[in-house]
Specification:
CATH topology: Protein kinase-like fold
Strand order of the largest sheet: 1-7-6-4
Main location: membrane
Catalytic activity: L-seryl-[protein] + ATP = O-phospho-L-seryl-[protein] + ADP + H(+); L-threonyl-[protein] + ATP = O-phospho-L-threonyl-[protein] + ADP + H(+)
Helix content: 40-55%
Keywords: Cell membrane, Disulfide bond, Immunoglobulin domain, Kinase, Membrane, Repeat, Serine/threonine-protein kinase, Transferase
Strand content: 5-15%
Shape: globular
Family: Belongs to the protein kinase superfamily. Alpha-type protein kinase family. ALPK subfamily.
Number of strands: 8
Order of helices and strands: HEEEEHHEEEEHHHHH
Protein name: Alpha-protein kinase 2
Distance between the termini: 56 Å
Radius of gyration: 23 Å
Largest sheet: 4 strands, mixed
Number of domains: 1
Length: about 200
């Protein structure tokens, strides 16, 4: 039941992705997650089974569940790049709360996918993969031309405000008298306590 729930949920995201991508000139064919069905077989010793379309051809893993392995077919093939873009698109659309992963199949037809959500789930839905896969994806994902065509934001950029605050802080720390003038007394006492231990 969970396998059907996960794959068919991922399929719905893939349909939304396709609708957006197909409007773009030059994007081309979009990966499709095939449906999976649960059937009841009361006469069998294992009364439930899943059924899906048979995929004929070279079966390729475009991404792995934990994101630790870089698959050259993912990076170099059109299907692989579009799968990575699909992951990025879902990540951005769900504000980093959900990631479709373990993308694999034949050409643009995918099956047996996984979904990672944050520990609390996303909109009442919990995936079947560890939420650590989301962080690993964010750290390892490399945008490609299809990410750019969809206008997806790079996952590697630092916000300008954060960069500015960091550089200001390092300048202030080099001049301790400046720090003491700018920092309230209570904060200074705490900082002095910390620095005396180092």
């Amino acid at each position: 039941t969970q396998e059907c729930c996960v794959q068919n949920a991922a399929r719905e995201y893939a349909k939304l992705y396709a609708a957006e991508a197909e409007m773009l000139e030059g994007f081309g064919e979009v990966p499709e997650i095939i449906p999976i069905f649960l059937i009841h077989r009361p006469a069998n010793s294992i009364p439930y089974a899943t059924v899906e379309e048979e995929l004929v051809g070279e079966f390729v893993k475009y991404s792995v569940r934990d994101g630790k392995e870089v698959n050259f077919l993912r990076r170099d093939s059109e299907a692989g790049q579009k799968c990575c873009t699909f992951q990025h698109w879902v990540y951005e659309k769900t504000s980093g709360n959900l990631l479709v992963t373990d993308l694999q199949g034949v050409g643009m037809k995918l099956t047996d996918v996984g979904i990672a959500t944050l520990a609390k789930g996303y909109k009442g839905f919990k995936g079947n993969c560890s939420f650590s896969f989301i962080e690993q994806f964010r750290a390892l994902h490399q945008c490609n031309e299809y990410c750019e065509m969809l206008g997806l934001k790079s996952l590697r950029t630092t916000h300008p405000k954060q960069r500015k605050a960091t550089s200001t802080k390092s300048k202030n720390l080099s001049n301790s008298s400046t720090v003491k003038k700018m920092v309230p007394k209570k904060a200074r006492e705490h900082r002095d306590f910390i620095s005396s231990e180092h």
